[in-house]
Write a structure and sequence with these properties.
The chain is 69% helix and 0% strand. The longest helix is centred in the middle third of the chain and has 26 residues.
Length: 75
Amino acid sequence: LTPLDEHCDCKVCTTYTKSYIRHLFKGDEHLGPRLVSYHNLYFLKQLMHDIREAIKEDRLLDFKEEFFRRYYKKD
C-alpha cells in the first residue's frame, strides 16, 4: 500500500498505490499503463529540472551522489 516512488509528488504517487496499479495491470486495464507512463514522464521532467538547477548552483556532482544514494541504495 505504498506509492510507486516515495520521493515523488506526482498525481499518480499521491493518489494510487503500487498494489492498485498492479491490479490494473493484472486485469489488463488500460488505466495501469497510462498511470505508469504519467509517473515516468513526470519523474523524467522533474529529474531534468533538478539537474538544471544543480548545474546553475554549481553542485552537479553533489546532486549525482544524492540521486544515486536515494535510488540505488543497498539494503
